[in-house]
Amino acid sequence: MHRSMPDTGTQTEERIKVASAGGHSFRLDYGETHLSISSDIDCRSIALDCLVRHYSELVGYINREPLFKASYEPVAVTEDAPQIVRLMADSTKACGVGPMAAVAGAFSELVGEGIVSAGGRDVIVENGGDIFMKAASTKTVGIHSGPSRLSGLFALRVEPGDTPCGICTSSASVGPSISLGKADSVTCVADSAAFADAAATALGNLVRSNDLQPVFEKASRIAGLRGVVVIVGGSFGAWGKLPEIIQR
């Protein structure tokens, strides 16, 4: 579970590595959020404006409603809640986890959508391993799984028709996010990056051994989840309608 604003990015070992969209690639840091952005258009100012606005609105809401940040369970939000708060609340309600479980994916999604709205056709926004993608060409997303011997051996081949989508990972062995399970990586794919982030947390909490059946049973009950890839130790499993899984 995420308990704070994401602070992963390239400062820690990334759980997902993805080929850049090309054209314009840059880092964008604001507060505790650190984005890696690639786009076919020059979008630095657009991305910064979008990040600052949503970050400020989220911090302002948390200051008024501290339970939104503290809760490990879904939280109802006020009618005047800003877009990022509503996105996080809706995503985590569907997955049964606290609102901050979707924070990294929400920033990726909203900044990515802002760039797409400005004309971007080939856009990747990565936030500590949580990715928004709108692709104009085939992309390869490699799955990093910390100490597992399978780390880096598998990837998703994402076609333009698979996007826009969110590809997000939760891990008990990599990064600062809290997971109640033992997975080296749980990578979820969904239409929404915030939703994929929440689902990855929820499913990651269930990984207690190499028996992945309970995880896949839960995944089948999360409406809107496209699929999931799980790596724990030397075990690998996948469920759902995923992009092509390739071995590297």
Sequence of secondary-structure elements: EEEHHHHEEEEEEHHEEE
Could you tell me the number of beta strands? 12
State the helix count.
6
Spatial separation of the terminal alpha carbons: 30 Å
Name the strands of the widest sheet in spatial order: 2-3-4-5-8-9-10-11
| Range of strand content | 25-35%
Counted up, domains total: 1
The fold-level CATH name is T-fold
Rg, nearest Å: 16 Å
Relevant CATH superfamily: ApbE-like domains
- Percentage of helical residues? 25-40%
Described by strand count, sense and barrel closure, the largest sheet is: 8 strands, antiparallel
CATH architecture title: Roll
Secondary structure topology:
Blueprint: E1 16-18, E2 24-30, E3 33-39, H1 44-64, H2 67-70, H3 83-95, H4 103-117, E4 123-127, E5 130-134, E6 139-143, E7 154-158, E8 165-170, E9 185-190, H5 193-204, H6 213-220, E10 225-232, E11 235-240, E12 244-247
